[in-house]
Amino acid sequence: LITRAFRSQFVIPDFQDFIKDIEEMYWTAKSITDGKVASYIPQLARANSDNWGVSVCTIDGQRFSIGDVNVPFTLQSCSKPLTYAMALETLGPDVVHQYVGTEPSGRNFNELVLDHNMKPHNPMINAGAILVCSLLKSLDKPEMTLAEKFDYVMSFFSRLAGNEVLGFNNAVFLSEREAADRNYALGFYMREHKCYPDKTNLRECMDFYFQCCSMEANCDIMTIMAATLANGGICPITDEKVLRPDSVRNVLSLMHSCGMYDYSGQFAFKVGLPAKSGVSGAMLIVVPNVMGICTWSPPLDPLGNSCRGLQFCEELIKRFNFHKY
Ligand code: DON
């Protein structure tokens, strides 16, 4: 890092100027009062609408954070690209995609629907993520108990985040599990259609999915994960090779086409970057070969994306040439 600094070889050489733009965009988005915090899970309804944080981390480890970047939030659906990445890494894409497709569903994230092969459409919606959890549980180190598997996944996520330690919100987990009629319906519907590998214990698999949604981190931690994805799978903070480049390509492709719920097509058109949102109001945004970004603000638009996060991304594309096309 220091050698590159002396030679001015950073991917964003004028980082101080860049920070000024991020600050302006942060304050503009802060004044937005649109949106409602998610309330379908009682514990999520307790989120504070005023929280707003933005963290960036470049592929060469330059970092900047502004706002509520140290306040923990639950990963929710931002865990979906991470569990998918882990499944690709441990099982390989051929095995994973025997069970789950790569097509946007064009429907809500928790819609009771499978594709024409009777597989979940993709790993970024609930059905696909529940399926990926079953693969991680039943095919990769199947001898592990659920407790051991939880630790195993946590430490994998932590490696993506430069060895930062993630938390777990038990109240959200319990609330999530209590309010999960739709997810159970999806789980049983997939069992009816023999979507899971043999020996899948559905109750364990559902608990595992709720646990992944209830893991906790903050913007500062999540931005490192996004930066690892931006950097071809090598964590810019530890230099550890956490993911193979082909796993990263698959994860980013599906974040690009399916990561923003039913707004994914419009987001791909307007912003042109792979991203994933979660109902806690977090967004992971990847500028490939440049940087990772994490934004967090709980109020959501009717499609479930963070209002401030979306406005921030649209402004980012106006100011910088980051749109893929
Ligand atoms: O209801 C659920 O399954 C959620 N806890 C998942 C959350 C989420 O962010 C929705 N995403 N696709």
From TrEMBL:
Biological source species: Pieris macdunnoughi
Catalysed reactions listed for this entry: L-glutamine + H2O = L-glutamate + NH4(+)
Taxonomic lineage of the native organism: Eukaryota, Metazoa, Ecdysozoa, Arthropoda, Hexapoda
Family: Belongs to the glutaminase family.
Protein name: glutaminase
Complete-protein stretch covered: 146 to 470 of 629
Record-level Gene Ontology MF annotations: glutaminase activity
EC number: 3.5.1.2
Subunit record text: Homotetramer.
Keyword terms: ANK repeat, Hydrolase, Repeat
Any single GO BP term: glutamate biosynthetic process
